[in-house]
Fold:
Amino acid sequence: MEKEKRNGIKILFMIPLRRCGSHAIRLRLNMSEEFYSPYPLHIIDILNKVNIKDEELLDDNKYKKLIELILGLEEKLFFRWFKEGDISVDKVFEAIKNDIRNIHKISEGILLQSASLYKPKAKIIMDKSLDCINYAEDLINIYGEDAKFLNIVRDPRAQINSMNQAIIHDFSTISNTLTWLNAYNKANYLINKFPNNVLTITFEEFLMNQEETLKKICKFNGIEFKIEMMEIKKSDEAKIIHSKSALWKSNYSDPILENIDKFKKSLSYYDLEIIETLTEEFMNKYNYKRLTNENIKLTEDEINKAKDDSLKNKEKLGIC
Amino acid sequence: MLEHDDKDDYEARQKRNKYILEMLKEMSELRII
Structure:
């Protein structure tokens, strides 16, 4: 069992797509001594660019180079995992050198080192990167039945509205809706293939009943619910993160119910039609009620133009 | 476009991307990628 290699600590991956309210949930769970999930490293930014040859990583120096790259991502976080001098390439390498070698094991190794230093009672470590839905099959291959997933579903209209404002996504409703659909289809595949490994909650149920939702997550992970999880004002990270972006402001307050349909103020009727048409299957599945009446037919030209426009905007910003 | 809500994150993201590209170049030379 993979778990035995981690002294019984379980590993959890949050899926399927950023801007789902994931920080709100992560920050609350982090109030427990048994749970550890720092700000994610987002190794997808590497995986999307290159194909790593795992067989080359059997060479110690090459493996250390990849460890150095991943540790460099940690150094660039505004809320760092490590205090200065607490971590080094050699420390990570020594801890993981005899395990199978790949980028996911490095990510796990760094997370475990951080947990052992700052959350020594942690029973669960969670990678909140969400984009791990894109390599979930690899994780299943590595961790087998130990790989657990926390699937955070959010009303597509609210999530896509939020995505439209974030530089990590596209500046286009069409493009972001296709991204949303792709991620939810992948999550659906995972749910159907490994039903016992995935817990699905909706962000709206969290907003409406924070305590019960957190208890459900705790039960799935075999940890105790703590009332401190409801006291977000006591979280140092929530205090810092909420000031870093307008999109993170609500992370330092109790759940704001009015945010459930805030998207109505920003999305046009045509935007709503696009989203509700393309995501209809999932809107039905998760019981989100439509606001528009008719399905629209998007042309290939419209889809291609949306992708092109978004790409041009990203190139202009230098964030490709 | 920079009026978007998380513009504060923009600079950090640019630096991060630059760092990744530089490291990937080194890894390419080592034939890891």
User: Anything to note?
Assistant: The two ends of chain B are 33 Å apart (CA to CA). Residues 26 and 32 of chain B are 9 Å apart (CA to CA). The interface with chain A takes residues 1-2, 4-10, 12-17, 19-21, 23-24, 26-28, 30-33 of chain B (CB under 8 Å). The mean pLDDT of chain B is 77.
